[in-house]
Fold these 2 entries.
Entry 1:
Amino acid sequence: MKTLYETDFVEWSDRTAELLRAGRFDELEIENVAEEIASLGKAERKAVRSQLQRLIMHKIKQQIQPERDGNSWQAPIAEARQARLDDIEDSPSLRRHLEENLQKLYRRAMETALIETRLDYSPFPNECPWSLDTLLAN
């Protein structure tokens, strides 16, 4: 027999919030609550990785095609920097997560930048030339 969690997630989440607010903890589906809380953190980490990768890609493109570096590239970089700083201010553990994933994000950003610029080779080193602090600095 399927549970409400499996058949109507929205209704389950509304009901679970009501139970929590009412202090009716014995009626909670603890495993499902724990799963959803964990998924919130996972989603946050995924989102900041994606945005940092995009920021790195724009930085690479600035270097590869300096003649095309204008407001259309500088504005998204500035916005991405500030948004990542806000994320880290709200959840300081994200800094460590981004530092741990910086090299992977750099490689992915390089691949995307090469596709977008239609280059067959990378004029950049295999390792990310920027620290997280440098990427997030104005």
Note: The longest helix spans residues 30-64.
Entry 2:
Amino acid sequence: MSFGGFPDEGLIFYEGLEADNSKAYWSRHKEVYEAAVKAPMLALLEELSGEFGVSHLFRPHRDVRFGKDKSPYKTHQGAYFRGAGDGIGYYVQFDADGLFAGAGWYTPAPDQVERFRAAVDDEKKGERLAAVLDELTAAGLTVEGDRLKTRPRGFGDGHPRLDLLRHRSLHVGRRWHPEDWLHTPEALDRVRLLWRSTSDLVDWLGTHVGPTDMPRRR
């Protein structure tokens, strides 16, 4: 199946799910989810796989075991391509607000954070990352990620890249609100071009952060 865009029914499905996040709503509209959300997302991932590798489609059910929010379903459909290490890669999301695409380092382990800060502290490596992020923000992307409110231990207040050192994850992205092009193959082109524009960031993270050496949680 070739990607032809995300149908308007997918937007309406998520608008309804936001208003009624229940098993009853999901059961009544499951066929809409399958046809207007899951199928086009899988088609988009298939189109991108030749360039970006193996993809993973997130499941629609939320893990409600440990949180106060017991809503059973996610109000978006996300997917990612793993780049150059654990939690480093490319992300795409469809929801009632349209389409979002991003790239970077999303799920850090302590040893990755340590390597990240060591690289940011290094003048040459750190300045290279800062330059890459400046280019991406100038192109309209937003820098995001989990950040400390204070400076990390061992670094002074006068460090030239203190804001970057505060990061415990680092990614960039762009949100597109619904327009006619969302229902056409242009949506695929926009995601592809954004991901290509972030390749320097993903490469930097893959080189200087890389995969974790710590055992995975079971």
Note: The chain has seven helices and six strands.
